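tool_call: predict_structure(chain=1)
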Amino acid sequence: MVVGDALLDRDVAGAVNRVCPDAPVPVLDERVTTDRPGGAGLAALLAAAQDTEVALVTALADDAGGARLADLLAEAGIEVYPMHLPGATTEKIRLRAGGQTLLRLDRGGDPQPPGEPPPAALDVLTRARAILVSDYGRGLVRQPTLRAALAEASAPVVWDPHPRGPAAVAGARLATPNVAELRQLTGDAGAGPALSTATRAGHELRQRWRVGAVGVTMGADGAVLCHAGSTPLVVPPPSALDRVEDTCGAGDRFAATAALALGDGAPVSEAVGAAVAAASAYVAAGGAAGLHRAPERQPVLAAARTAEELVAKVRADGGTTVATGGCFDILHAGHVATLQAARRLGDCLIVCLNSDRSVRGLKGPERPVNPEGDRARLLAALDCVDAVVVFDEPTPHQVLARLRPDVWVKGGDYAGEELPEADLVHRWGGRAVTVPYLAGRSTTGTISAARQRGLHLVKGAV
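tool_result:
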């Protein structure tokens, strides 16, 4: 369930090629106009995009804007429980060119108190799996009957507040203001770093509103979760965004994802983590402007293809490509020493990683200890690693034949031995080398020592 003020958003996109002759302002040549639900309507739209059944309690006016908004919500498969909205539909019109907003025009006038919610809306609130209150400051969530129903709801409630809106109902599971909203809601002047403000004011709002937790969104820095403990949880985005085109709706994406996760039984910390990842992906895909964008014809690149493009780029620049391989089941100092030494031999390092099936074939049914996704993520996080390719075969011969690195590297424990991949690498003029390693470090030894230590602890306990 999404409860809140639905708006009508309209993007007028075009090109600016001249300045108005009677005023120093750009002239926008309109090319395309796109309508979409805004406010709580956008939150409902984003929740419905996650393959879940969504219902929306909102107020609709008896005008052309209200009819258009109702049609858009119906087209998205959202079940609407309308309350009567006196006056006109609130419209937010953005004039855009080159991926930038030049001007926003607001229509609809001052907020008007909505009518009573229909009995069906109150009934469905009692059956909701999760409830997102998307307050856009137009007064809907001040409606007494609706507010009483939210306070009595058994489903987890996520409250996405507005500085002009009321406090969340006591007992809400999570409130999700951004830093600017949080400062207005608490009166905090924001002295010091943003993290300090988010932590200080977040705890203040949580106690004042008597909500379970406050997840403060911080744009490109992710979110800060203030909960019952004194130490906040900082959740950074999965990766930095190269270019931000449109952040409109990122907060709605965050709040909707958190509500769905809580509805599925996730703890608040996991819900906020999922919400940060979802909001980051939403912004990376173009934000609200990307909702109606035609899908890319090119598929998402797999890891091996990404590595091939990296190799091509390095070669085009006259650089040297280096590759190494292994299971890397439990990453230890010996691995890091080998990888750092390998990276110094060229301009990029690609790690060819044995898949889980490949590791089982080489090491036995009890291996790997860590799944390939975790192993790849750890390797990719190292500064000396530029790409990771997972292969399913017993040996890396097939992936090497695709990548054709200039240098193939193995650890110094292979020193004096003929590397199994050497003949293959020599075919395209590559070199097979070994690099120094740290003696006494091995995954098998680490696992054996851990098991032996565990056995001693068990015997001691007995």
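agent: The longest strand covers residues 6-19. Proceeding to next step.
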